[in-house]
Amino acid sequence: MISIQNxxxxxxxxxxxxHELNWECSDGSIIGLLGKNGAGKSTFxxxxxxxxxxxxxxxxxGLQNPRDRQPDxxxxxxxxxxxxxxxxxxxxxxxxKMMAPFYPQFDFxxxxxxxxxxxxxxxxxxxxxxxxxxxxxVLAFGLSTNCKFLLFDEPTNGLDIPSKSxxxxxxxxxxxxxxxxxxxxxxxxxxxxxxxxxxxLGDGKVKLDEDLLALSDQMNFGYAIEMPxxxxxxxxSGVGLHFIQTRQENQNQSQVNLELLFNAVVSxxxxxxxxxxxxxTTS
Amino acid sequence: MSNSLQINGTNISNLIRYEWMNRKKMYLxxxxxxxxxxxxxxxxxxYSNYQTTALLxxxxxxxxxxxxxxxxxxxxxxxxxxxxxxIFATGQSFLDLRExxxxxxxxxxxxxxxEKYLVQFLGRFLLPLMIYPIxxxxxxxxxxxIFKLSILLLFENKAIDxxxxxxxxxxxxxxxxxxxxVYWFLWGSFLLIPSLMFxxxxxxxxxxxxLMPLSVLLFxxxxxxxxxxxxxxxxxxxxxxxEQMKFEVLNFDKPEIFPGIPLLLLVIIVLxxxxxxxxxxxxxxxxxxxxx
Lengths: 283, 292
Known about the structure:
- The complex is a heterodimer of chains A (283) and B (292).
- Chain A has 10 helices and 12 strands.
- By secondary structure, chain A is α/β, with parallel strands linked by helices.
- In chain A, a hairpin with an 8-residue loop joins strand 1 and strand 2.
- In chain A, helix 4 runs antiparallel to helix 5 and helix 5 runs parallel beside helix 6.
- Chain B starts with 8 loop residues before the first helix and ends with a helix.
- In chain B, the strands form 2 sheets. In chain B, strands 1-2 form a two-stranded antiparallel sheet. Chain B has a two-stranded antiparallel ribbon with strand order 3-4.
- Chains A and B meet through helix 2, strand 5 and helix 3 of A and helix 1 and helix 3 of B.
């Protein structure tokens, strides 16, 4: 379980990034962490991993305070930052020899399989790879560590189209029930069919934190030539418009349009309050 | 015991493997470079002495034998080498923390702060200080061998006193039979430089080799100035700058706090040893508080 209470954080000589932020998540979910540029997605992951420390408030990952960077905690968390720091003079196999012993649950067979799926040669030097290929190595490594908490910052950034699909399949196939994966991204389409929960950061707070099943249960995401009267938010697209409306009982469930939802939340048309009001109405 | 203070053999060996695989070329390059440089330096000294002898025998009365380089002559070079080692090897502590990207990976390696700290201490402090005397001694032996061989094969004048190789334990000998106050002063200053450079690695990063020596100089300057200032306050005519420059500062060796132990020297020694101890404490806490 991850628990954040009254978190405040700011970089030196900068305005506050998070103020009194509260958030919780139970084990075993794939969370999409969305937000505009500068909203603090990467910072959020770094706070969770213990790379930076909150100015105020408490962060708990599992039973540990990330700030302590205890070995037991570090064995259970793996962060893939947006900017990689990998030893380019090493071969992929040497990189594994160097890093894998740190993670007692590391699955070598899975790593080899994932490398094959990503079409990565184990005996090639990391320095000979493109950024995307290097990212694939680290993604395969991260998914093989069996760490309880996986934090991926822009994991699909730099991946080609087939690799993005392979990544989604790899995550779906290799993540255990007790593992929590948080994916911070601005490429919402890449994670649309992967995540089961969405968190949207903005203005120093969590603007929305909803289960995707609950979202598709409560909201209807549709496309029409004219905006329905009950639409909460709409966006022009081609000859018609994409819209979000409250789902009626007789309506079929629709797939959540993450991009539309994100824009709606960022514009203020939808907020966490919208859902709590709705829950109260239905109950 | 707190987990962050734990020492686990597996974690230590993982960290050593990490360090070695990341910087194998640097370690081998530095070791080999230092070894070759020492050989070059010794041979340069030996041949210079040989040539000087040849010149002396040509123009001045000489017995034809060269200026002998004895085992005891190595110590000065050895000590200078230790200071260079402190600046360029020990000063390279916590290399992973110099760049944000690398620091993020390093700080998240599953090992305690103490384990990471110990591996740094081992790799940047103990290892160079252990390897250096061995390489130094080996370089002297090899240089003497090369010199002898070259004289026998290539030079006409073979009736010379060949240089001696260094004697390992003589490199560390101090000119005192039993510990004295000067002994503690010398060992203190000998250990202080690498200790401060080790600390500087985590404070100043890339610019450590410039900024830490500069900080030490600045601190020493301030100490000297305060010493002069104190002298002037206590005795106004002790410092006169003008027509006749005059520095009559307080005596360095007076007063004595114990027989033969000047107070000022004792204070300096105490400061040295506190600084040595604190440099390790501070660098450890710097590591625990490091953000990336």
